[in-house]
Sequence to fold (301 residues):
Amino acid sequence: MSVRELVVLGTASQVPTRHRNHNGYLLRWDGEGILFDPGEGTQRQMLRAGVAAHDLNRICVTHFHGDHSLGLAGVIQRINLDRVPHPVTAHYPRSGQRFFDRLRYATAYRETVGVTEAPVEADGDLAVTGSYRLEARRLSHPVESYGYRLTEPDGLRMLPERLAAHGITGPDVGRLQREGVLGDVTIDQVSEVRRGQRFAFVMDTRLCDGVPALAEGCDLLVIESTFLDEDAPLAAEHGHLTAGQAAAVARDAGVRHLVLTHFSQRYADPEEFGRQARAAGFDGELTVAHDLLRVPVPKRR
Fold:
């Protein structure tokens, strides 16, 4: 059975706290695992969350600040130690190639797995598979940063009432799906488009064109909300979003489930992020993330 869920490994910004590890997020998408922004301590958080190196197929780094990338060294070495039997691809900003190289070869180890380097140089598609299209969009941060988005291809939903009207039942339904036509009935006459699911990952950024482009129509949006609204000037200065800004983006983009994360250690009550998100008018499903949380991708409409 296919599984689509987000496993939250860490939610702190800049420095970890007693209760929050540095960033780390695993998206399980059918049989694949995509690890986003492995900060320091990610390997241990994977162990606590029941995530193995064998679960990883891609690593996506938004930018090369330490809280989003210092865990790369341990994760890549673990992939090699465990002799992961399938290809692993790493995406990251091309401008940070020197940082990726240093992290990949931070210490001596035996390479047993070929990690494919696929750096990001501009907005656009990074990979197309049978179950998703992965794309990147440039964000606005003091260092080059990209957000990531997965889009499932649209499919077809068969409509029982139309099938019945044409007298199509049993094995003939499958034949029509495979061949596209049965007698004088085409599949378009008895089906409708089933929109593919959409997921986006938006980390350190000010408001910019890339943020709504990534969020548009998402079933699940994971987005930073480092600051509360009263500290909006600080957020803009340091290249971050507030809870209200993140929620307003989700509201306008028609997001179904909003996950707020990457919280500054200056705030004692994380639930205030949720309250400000509601005050901004977001009325969909809302999660204020905490470490080791699992969030399912919402079921298709």
In short: The mean pLDDT is 96. DSSP finds ten helices and 18 strands in the chain. The first strand starts at residue 4 and ends at 10.
